[in-house]
Description:
Elements: H1 6-18, H2 24-34, H3 41-68, H4 76-80, H5 83-86, E1 99-106, E2 111-112, H6 131-135, E3 152-154, E4 186-188, H7 206-211, E5 212-214, E6 216-222, E7 227-233, H8 239-253, E8 257-261, H9 264-272, H10 277-282, E9 286-289, H11 299-305, H12 320-326, H13 332-368, H14 372-388, H15 397-425, H16 443-474, H17 485-520, H18 527-554, H19 567-571, H20 576-582
Parallel strand pairs: 1-8, 8-9
Antiparallel strand pairs: 1-6, 2-5, 3-4, 6-7
Helix pairs in contact: 1-3, 2-3, 11-14, 15-16, 15-17, 17-18, 17-20
Amino acid sequence: MLAVSMECLELYHQIHRRKPLFSVQAMVKVLCALHNRTYYQSLRDQFAVAFDAYLEILRQVKSLVDRALGQDTPHWRMLHACPACDYKQLDELPLYPARLDAFDGNNSLKRVDGSGHADECCFTSSYHISTDEVEQFKDDVRLRPGARPATVHVEPETSVVQETPASLEPSASLELSTPLKPSPAIRVSNDSLCTDNWKAANTITENTTNVFEQTGVFVSACRHGIIQTLVEMRRSGELYYALATANKLIDVYGPNGVTGYDIGCSFSKTAMASSIADKVKTLNHRFVVNSFHRHAHNRRCQLQYHTLYQEGLGIEDLETCEHVFSGSNAWDQDRYQELSQFLYNNYKQALDIINDVTPAVEELKAQLDLTDADFHRWNIEELEYLESLASEVEYDPQKTAYVEALQSLMMAEAEYGGITSVQFLSYVPADFTQHSGLRKGPQAATRAWEVERRAAHNKLLLEMNTVLDLERRIGITQRWTPADLEYQEALKYLHNQQFIRAVQHLEGLVVQRLFELAKANLAGTGYKMQQQISNAITQCSTAIRNAFERYNQLAPLQTPPQEVLKFSEVASYAWLGSLSCSNTHGRKY
Length: 589
């Protein structure tokens, strides 16, 4: 017969809360060592049964206490969990936004179907969103990022305009995210190219989800890290769990809320195409992109969804869920202990920024004759400009392909002619004898030349067939030459297209380098990680140099010609890494 004291069970309860990896088996082995007993699997099973019973007792006691205190009403915990977010003074002015939240999925908590043993115990929790609430959104995710082309229309009014989509067809345009403070309305269609970097923004294949019984958890938390809701993701991606969580937050907390999400830009469009579209629009709930994740989103997205450009968010970065996941089992009770210090540090940081930056800003405004309205106007103008460049000038893609094929054909002809002419010119009169057989040098060199000549000839035939096929498709009877006007127009467009891609590639490599340099300077990085980062920096520098050379080749060919860069100028951008790293997060600890 085995008896376990309540004190022992509570000890393991607190140990397990602080160290989830400390298992029941480990606890029982410790107890066996203390009592000089041999460990058996049956002892572990009995302790586990006793611990489950103890947890059920704690839940029942808490339920009775909550009922006696009148704290068992629906959503009572969500409405009173965070003192800083949920308690208002009688004379407190309303804030806009009314509250700041964040939600995100943790895909690292996967569980392969059929592997090991799963705990079959079920219990009611005020954190969990019920299965019925989640399942109603299972078929709600009909739009996928990138389903519509990007367009923008800026209206002169100064009010926020939002409209409900007339239908869910891909051609239906949506009225989406606008700045928090009323400003010229920006009408945006489904532009989600920046979210292609995030798995949550893309459809997860059925083969992927079928492998796992549990694909992770999806949580929401207030800006101070207090957990609000939790739902277990099963055999699917996280988008419809995000819809269920958003629906819960809006129902409980009411209007004028803002929620940070890694893919807040594309999720805004998903929400506006779902069954909660009317609720989101009526209660003016908004979804933005967390501060740190801005690096994976394009500039147009940042101007509309990034926290830096949303009035009312201050220094808040909304990276709350990342801190929650990094803390693993450090849940609400631990957050309460840190809340006062958190508020104090944020308040102190905000005051430091105001005191240090305000004089410089005011001086610049006076020197340049600027007002606060100019800063808002610049964002609108920048967005308009970027949107005007979002779509390429319409041009027949077959014509550009034809010019590319002609250029490839000319290169193949030059390569083949160079090989044959060089070999022929290398002969001397002595080679043309009765016994020479027009053979020059060792047989190995002759065979190598023949292989090279045959490869060049095959490439030439391939390029000729490509040109002939395009001429047949386009209906060209007279082959274009560099002197033809159509050839020049297509070549100009082609050079511009290649130049834009070269600039984007160079920009991406430079940003990647900044990330690596910033990471290399972080304290506490292990030796192996330092070596990997160092190798990545070296490889990235080589890639930057290659992309830089490609840029300089295309820059003079543009109309008008673009400035040629020096590699030292591009490499010197690394000093921005320290600035970028220091501004990644707004909070202090």
